[in-house]
Amino acid sequence: MGFERSDTTGGQNTALALKILVAGGFGVGKTTLVGAVSEIRPLRTEELLSEAGQTVDDTDGLDHKTTTTVAMDFGRITIRAGLSLYLFGTPGQDRFWFLWDELSQGALGAVVLADTRRLEDCFPAVDYFEHRSIPFVVAVNCFTGARAYGAHEVSRALDLDRGTPVVLCDARDRDSGKEVLVRLVEYAGRMHTARLLDSVG
Ligand SMILES: Nc1nc2c(ncn2[C@@H]2O[C@H](COP(=O)(O)OP(=O)(O)O)[C@@H](O)[C@H]2O)c(=O)[nH]1
Ligand SMILES: [Mg+2]
Predict the structure, then answer these.
(1) Using CA atoms in the order 137, 155, 94, 192, what is the torsion angle rounded to 10 degrees?
(2) Is the pTM here over 0.70, yes or no?
(3) Is any ligand 1 atom within 6 A of the Cβ of residue 20?
(4) DSSP H/E element including 53
(5) Alpha carbons 62 and 152: distance in angstroms, whole number
(6) Atom of ligand 1 nearest to the CA of 145
(7) pLDDT digits (tens, 9 = 90+) for 83-106
(8) pLDDT in tens, 111-132
(9) 195 lines ligand 1 (CB under 6 A)
């Protein structure tokens, strides 16, 4: 389980910094989410969609998206005193998969963003975290114009393991994004405890 302790006050106030990945398909709202919740000016690397890129990046049904993240988003949020999260928005395109293995080293867990209009776009991310037993929550970014599905329907459509949380959210909204992250931290905490008990029992 990846975290670092930074002790700035001689052992009085030990701060935990946890690493969280934000994954999901192209245009699902990863950059938006990291930007909405981050207390520091989010670092992002975007490039204008090149003409060549446009044939690769299917922008149908996306809201006037003209840039794409080629490296990743980075942000930080303090959940409560002594607990902050470092957020890494993973590259949303297949040609950047090779970056994920490095990014996922030491991560507590992941948020998989989903858009119910293109639910299949998050299958690769779901598979990726399931196969590596990295705890994740699915956050349905409720775009205007998208039919509202319940958490249960999304869970079934994605064939998630029982217990994997599905949260409806608005990636543009700070409180909504924070709620997703709190759910993830709680869920990942339960998963890690259960595995620990399994390994001693
Ligand atoms: N209406 C609406 N638009 C959103 C929402 N989240 C993101 N967007 C827009 O969708 C586009 C893609 O979002 P972005 O964060 O860049 O997606 P990324 O590729 O996953 O990083 C941007 O133009 C956002 O402004 C949302 O919850 N509602
Ligand atoms: Mg992005």
Answers:
(1) 30
(2) yes
(3) no
(4) helix 51-56
(5) 25
(6) 1
(7) 999 999 987 666 667 778 888 999
(8) 999 999 999 999 999 999 999 9
(9) no
